[in-house]
Each structure stands twice: as C-alpha cells, then as structure tokens.
Amino acid sequence: MPTAIIFSDGYLKHDTGHHPECRERYQATLDGLMRDDELWDALVRLAPREATEEDLLRCHDRQAIELVNQACLQAEFDDHAAIDSDTVVSRQSDLAARLAAGGACRAVDAVLGGEAESAFVACRPPGHHATQGVSMGFCLYNNAAVAARYAQAVYPQQIGKVLIVDFDVHHGNGTQDIFYDDPSVFYFSLHQYPWYPGTGASDERGLRDGEGFTLNIPVPAMTPAEDYLRKFEQGLESVMKNFSPDLVIISAGFDAHQADPLGQLCLTDESYRVITRRLKEAARATAAGRVVSCLEGGYNLRTLGETVRSHVRALA
Predict the structure, then answer these.
(1) Angstrom distance (rounded) from CA 24 to CA 27
(2) Residue 295 bridge partners (DSSP)
C-alpha cells in the first residue's frame, strides 16, 4: 500500500507576517519532498477538504471557533490580529485552519478507504496546543484531535481506539486536554521539560475513566538523541502492552531537531527515521499499518524540508 500526502496552497492563506510559524514553512516542507523524485512520484497526492462545524465541534467549544472567526474578521481591517501573544491570524486564517483539520480527516478517509496505508498531512497552522476552549501557541484547531474523533465517529466498526503520538519539542497541552478523561484515545508525548507551555509532567496521567491513558515523558534540554530514543522505545512498549490501537495518529513536530531555533533537544534526521519506522511497526501490530501524520512544529527553514523527507520516506 502506498503513502499519501495531503497538501494545498490553501495553507499559504494563513499569513502570520514575521513569525516563526510562517508560510515559508509550508514551502520548505514541500520542497524537501519534491527534491526526492523517487519519493514524490510514489506518493498518492490528495487535496484536503475544509473541516465542517460538526468535525470541529467534536473537539472544540463553539466559543473557541467563534473566537477564531472574530479574530479573522478583525484582521480584515488591521492585516493581522492576535488571539494571544504567540498566535497571529490574518483574514483567511480560518480557511487555512479548516483545511488543516479537514486535511487530517481526508487522511483518515485515505487510510481507511484503501487509498493508502499511511498519510502525511503537510498542513499549517499546526494544532496540538489548541484546547477544547481556546486557540493558543500558533495553533487554531487541533488537527490530530479532530482526525481522531472523526475516525471514531465515521468509521465506528473499524476504529474504536486511537493512539496519538506527539514528538514535538513542546507538550501538546491541547490534545491532552481534549482526551484527558477518555480511555478510547491514548495520548503519548515526549517533549522538552520544563518548556512552553509548562504542562506535560510525568504525573499527568489522565482523569476519571481516562486515568492511565495519558503518558508524558518529560525530556531535559540537551538530552542526547540516543537517550531520547531509549525513552521513546520504553514508552511505546509500555503503551502497546496495555493498549491496542486501531489507528495511529502522529503529531509530527520537528522542532526537537538539533538545529531548531525554538527547542533545545538533539534529534537528527536519522532519529526521526528510527521513530517513524518504529511507529509503523506498532501500527502494523494492531492497526493494519494505518498511520496518519500531521505536521506540527519545525522552524529551521534550512533543515525542515530534509527532516520531513526523512519522516515521510520512513512512512513510505
């Protein structure tokens, strides 16, 4: 089975100006993939769709959606508007964000409909900091969370349990928030700690029925890649021992790379290859190999394309 890529120039409509999460990230990502002719020719190329209100409301309050809409309306007059000190929008940012969340849903359709075994969503804005009630940390809607809920709602006979693996350098507080009391979605994160957004301690394990279905592995700054990979393997073994996912979703942040300006970890392109291959093995054990990967962070424009290529080539 091939690997699909979800991409669209619609992701360029989210104009943040001089900001780390800029439009050039999308172009760097695609350039890295297109430079590998063999890989690019092998990918199933698909366009995203816009996420519907129903898609978004499975994860977000209506007030959170309205906040994004209002900020984009304000940006019609001021070019840009700020939801918080980190999160900037422009007039068409809501469209781009709906294409990002809808692109993740389209990836679910691809892997469950037989078009591909795995899929990479080259989307922006990223999503894993967006909580049920508020957009934050460069993120408007939570793409991985929307995809997980979509899979469970639309494919209930195939998808009961979803594993979300987040290797962004920042903890995905939004994803944790959305599923914190839900035993059907396991959230597994490795992240620099202490670091933005301040969540993700090892004792954050879930709440009520969801207790034990969140696994945070805080990683100190400057941890060698070998130690990080060992922690990742131990964590994944623990997850898979107690949880058999029907679908694996990756919050694929590449800002734990040693060259990234917004992180202080030491991963290399080879590290991401190792992680991705291991996640594919885990998915094949219980989920028929079904993997959906959504772009999160990664802010070094010189290295991002090659790092993404390493990840997607390992998926494919």
Answers:
(1) 5
(2) 252
Q: Which domain holds residue 213?
A: 3-315
C-alpha pair distances (Å), 264 with each of 104, 192, 255, 295 = 28, 7, 9, 19
Print burial letters for 141-164: b (CB count within 10 Å at least 16), e (below 16).
bbbbbbbbbbbbeebeeebebbbb
**One-letter amino acid for residue 80 of the chain:** H
DSSP 13: G
Residue written as token pair 């909580």 = 131
If you search the block for the tokens 């030491």, which residue do you land on?
Answer: 266
Helix (H, G, I), strand (E, B) or coil at 267: strand
Q: What count of other Cβ atoms lies within 10 Å of the Cβ of residue 289?
A: 17
DSSP 143: H
- Number of structural domains (the chain) is 1
**Euclidean distance between CA atoms 122 and 254, whole angstroms:** 12
The answer to whether 10 touches 99, Cβ cutoff 8 Å, is yes
Q: Would you name the residues annotated as active-site residues?
A: 129
pTM (2 decimals)?
0.98
Residues recorded for the chain: 316
pLDDT tens figures, 255-300: 999 999 999 999 999 999 999 999 999 999 999 999 999 999 999 9
Contacts 24+ apart (CB under 8 A), 21-26: 21/124, 21/125, 21/126, 21/138, 21/297, 21/299, 23/124, 24/301, 25/124, 25/298, 25/299, 25/301, 25/304, 26/122, 26/124
The model's confidence at residue 78, banded by pLDDT at 50, 70 and 90, is confident
Q: What is the CATH number of the domain that holds 260?
A: 3.40.800.20
Nearest alpha carbon to residue 90 among 75, 77, 100: 75
Of 95, 123, 105, nearest to 294 (Cα)? 123
Torsion sign, CA atoms 142, 147, 148, 149: positive
85-98 burial, b at 16+ Cβ within 10 Å, e below that, comes to ebbbbbbbbbebbb
